[in-house]
Amino acid sequence: xxxxxxxxxRPLTVQELSDHxxxxxxTAQPRVADLLDAAIRSHARxxxxxxxxxxxxxxxxxLMDVLSELPELPISSDHGIGQANGPMMTARRKSGxx
Length: 98
What we know:
It is a single chain. The N and C termini lie far apart (about 50 Å). Helix 2 (about 30-40) runs antiparallel to helix 3. This protein is about 45% helix and about 0% strand. It is built from 5 helices and no strands.
């Protein structure tokens, strides 16, 4: 039996995704391929790559632009705090609404 004690893999979070793709934004408006390249170079887990593969094929202006395409990602995995319906995500949705 595995000594880690986790029955399920940990969910992908905004923090983990941003940790792996932030370097892609040193160039102006990275494409999905650039985000994937940054994730692979930083040894991202498969859920990071899967999330990036769900993005539309376009250029992104910022990390927040990427996150707007992945609203289901929780902010953190700490006991449900900061889930997609948490304060940051709710505020982000409200600011985008007309």
